[in-house]
Design a protein that fits this description.
Layout (H helix, E strand, L loop, with lengths): L2 E6 L6 H10 L4 E3 H11 L1 H10 L4 E4 L2 E4 L1 H8 L3 H25 L5 E5 L14 E6 L2 H9 L6 H9 L4 H7 L4 E4 L4 H16 L7
Parallel strand pairs: 1-5, 1-6, 2-5, 6-7
Antiparallel strand pairs: 3-4
Helix pairs in contact: 1-9, 2-5
């Protein structure tokens, strides 16, 4: 039976680094952020619903509607009601894509789900193991503020709307905290050790 690894952590903690390392050793990864990006570009139904709710976040050019992701992000991270509205639109589609991904990889020994809101959406409940990316606050802030269109205000709002790693660990004590502060080589070695000790061997019953 396929084992499922959930990958999560706050913005700038190193989720993408962990995902890329799993991909390099042949473990398929479902990237929920990438899927959201595709939906916002290609799903005309969602684009129309966003245009109806927040027309200021949509650019119309020759009858083609395109989401202005910066404006949309500015809107949804300021008000929880708006954030939940967008999540209610998109999450059902993501869940279907995730379930299809798992089905398509049912012959794999291990697959991974890269989901920033793994705990907030209860996706952690379908995972056998959970990798929580972690780093120092100063490192996190430095990484995030280098991103295009990112401000300190937006960074703080995003953090405010996500669980802390302490809260995530309390929900699933058996999850693994993977620190990404010491370089990619160290992170990769930690991941390999965890995989060899738990994911590729039968989980012992308590």
């Amino acid at each position: 039976m396929t084992k499922i690894i959930g990958i999560t952590g706050s913005i700038g903690m190193g989720k993408s680094t962990i995902s890329s390392m799993l991909l390099k050793i042949g473990i398929p990864v479902f990237d929920s952020d990438k899927e959201v990006e595709l939906i916002l570009v290609n799903n005309s139904k969602i684009i129309n619903q966003i245009n109806k709710k927040w027309p200021q976040a949509v650019v119309i050019n020759k009858q083609e509607k395109r989401i202005n992701k910066k404006k949309l992000g500015d809107i949804i991270f300021k008000t929880l009601k708006d954030k939940y509205f967008l999540e209610k639109l998109i999450h059902p589609i993501i869940q279907k894509k995730r379930d299809l991904f798992i089905l398509q990889n049912k012959n794999k020994k291990v697959v991974a789900l890269d989901v920033p809101l793994l705990f907030e959406t209860n996706t952690y409940k379908i995972c056998d193991y959970i990798f929580i990316a972690n780093t120092k606050n100063s490192t996190q802030r430095h990484r995030v503020l280098k991103r295009p269109n990112m401000t300190m205000e937006k960074f703080n709002l995003i953090n405010k709307h996500q669980l802390s790693n302490i809260e995530r660990k309390s929900l699933e004590p058996k999850s693994f905290i993977i620190t990404t502060s010491f370089g990619k080589l160290v992170t990769f070695m930690v991941i390999l050790i965890i995989l060899l000790n738990v994911c590729f061997f039968k989980r012992e019953e308590n």
